[in-house]
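Chapter summary example.
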Amino acid sequence: MRTNKRMKTEALISTWAELPDEIMMEVLLRLPVKSTLRFRAVCRAWAATLSSDEFRALHMARAEAGAASAQPRLLVVAPTSAACEATAVYSCSPPEPGASLLLTLGDLRGDFVDGIAAPCRGLVLLYDAVAPAYYVVNAATRAVTRLPPGQDVVNSSAGLGYDAQTNKHKVMRLLRMGKDITCEVYTLGGVHGDRWMLAAGRVPSSLSTTAQCAIYAAESGNLPPVFANGSLLWLIYGRFSPQNSAVAAITFSVTEETFGWVKAPPCGTLLGVQLVELDGCLCMVRDLRHGSPDCNSAVEIWKLQDYTSGIWSLDTRVDLSHAGVSLLTPKVIRVLGATGDGRSVKKIVMATSNHTVHAYDTMSKNVETILSVADDTEMSYPSDRTAIRICLFKETFAPVHKTQEEISFSSPLAKATREILLRLPPRSIVQFKRVCSQWRRLIEDKGFIHSYFAHKSLENRAKIMIVGKGTGRRKFFRFAPLENWRSDAADEDAWLDSKVVCSKPCHGLNLLITAELDYLYNPCTGYCRTNAYPGSLPCPPWETPTDGGILQDHAFAIGNKNVGLGFNPFNQEHVSVIILYQYKDFKTREYRLTCSVWHCRAGFFQEGLVPWLPVNNMPPAYVDGMLFWMSDPMLGPISEYAILCFDIATEKFDVASCPPEINTANWSIHSTWNLFVAELRGKLCVVLADLKRDELVIWELENGEWDEIYTVRLEASPNYSLRSNVVVPLAVDPMDGSILLSTGRKMGFYDPVNETVGELYDVDEILRTYKMTGAYSQGAPCQEQAMPLVPMLYEGSIVSYPRMRKDKILH
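The structure predicted for these 811 residues follows.
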């Protein structure tokens, strides 16, 4: 029996069949793209018609004709959340309130998307400065393609254009390689496949310096090139121009792939200028608020009358004095384009760095605010970013032409392979890279790496490895499952010969800290990167007090440094923050320290940071883009505990208070308790170690409020006594609520019901068994005896960083 839905569909087809083809086509061309895409499912004939090149061309022609008479429709690119983990693309149709989410790009970091140019026949080019990678997006059809990587350079600028001769879109990159300027072209759906090709025409030697200036101007002003009259044009600021140059822009013919230049207008190209295409003509916008002697509250639009002669004329002058602070105070104003209301009344649409959009009526001379991202939408747009990621939106069916790699990744076989690989251990994943090139690309794909880490994070029980000495040849350490620690202890060649402190895992990587070097490791795959910082000492060159409530030398302290591993959520990079003490005097409370940040991806140091407080010798805690240390009340002017906070993204220090229930003002050097920080269940915790009661009291910070969550009583576990050990809580088992404790020498789960510790690892058992061999190193004389094997928490991941020859510049 036929369903009602099928009967209605057949009736619709029958009705449409009675209409002339011209009328049916005219109706379909007037439909929104989203509806037209759904109508492809009506029948095969409709699918063929609505997918044909002829229909696309007719729809494009209608979109071009209707653009001037339509109300402004805007495309807004914004992060999906405050953490900028992905990028969302929205559509706004003022004066209607709100914004419609069109699509989300999970691999594109929202806070590092450059300013976007006007769409080229419905397609938008987005650039992710973190990857780095280029994306071509058709927001109307929700189609996206990520372009293959091009040449790896520091300075470049790219734009999207259209070749009318071949009916293809092209992405062109202008590159600075040392003193040379070159360019490469990627053709969407081109005959050369998924490859960047050198442009047919080289940059003329006479324009080499000008091209360099164009790249610098694009990067400094966050101004992508503009597509107009079949060419991409890069603006040249006056301060970047070659001396005595009258060049306003360098041009690249998308069809001929040759370079040229455009003469500057009489007004010059000082700061505050931009290029824009209006009504099919190239225009230059002058923001006269930037130091112009003529006027400080106006925007001028100059139109290029003739490319050959380079004649410009003043077309429009927008008086901002009546627009209020919304247009007078923003740092940047950009003209997005022009629209009308069907009666030849042109409105010029402008966006600001305050994330507002305004329309200027050329007839009435009025300026109205048509969109405020902060007030009219719920987007998480970063208020401190000046890059304007708003453009006029035009619906078309222009294809993005996915790469062969994307097509192969979306096949049923590739999806099944992906699901299988997600369930394999990390070391097997690395080995499977050798199966074929397609598997290697799949495994090294950033999206797969993120999915694999997320999949393994579902197994949120603590995973523990034993760290021993490696065999050399960049195998500095050896990692083995915890259950094999007794058999591994029998191999004396694997015993560590110096003290090692292991960080907790941070986004798939661990930091192994020694007196001489720090090692960034993925213990699952063997990936490693080393860091040596001058000034680190195995033995502190000062006298340490014997009281103060905390041992000065323990399994979690090493030499004169305190190192924390964190993760920058904005640029997706691990960082190591190194605090080195040069001097401590516990009698005078004086100290001297340095603080540096090691950027793990690029491998460079950033020095000169100044912590607001001295920190104690306990390891920091990492939580949600922040590193936290407990201060040292025995140093500095303040003799009570406080929490030192470091925001990794902004690279700024701050100070937070401890739980108010802890009267830190009562602490003295004779106190029998101390404080340190820890991370448990993804939250910041403060741990009070009470030596007199032999118990740990743990507070957790949630929504700005401190709450006492655990009391760990160790009276029944003498091996974990606080009078002779520093005991650190590492994790909470989500199944039974038991707490993983470590002294460095011993590790076990504390049962909060029975108030006992079930031991997992005991280094003293190794020493008792093998102490007669004489193979065990005592380490430096000032340090606690080095342990032959060290337990370490880890996360299942395949995270790594490629070897880089230079630093990437992120704007």
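To summarize the output: The first strand starts at residue 74 and ends at 79.
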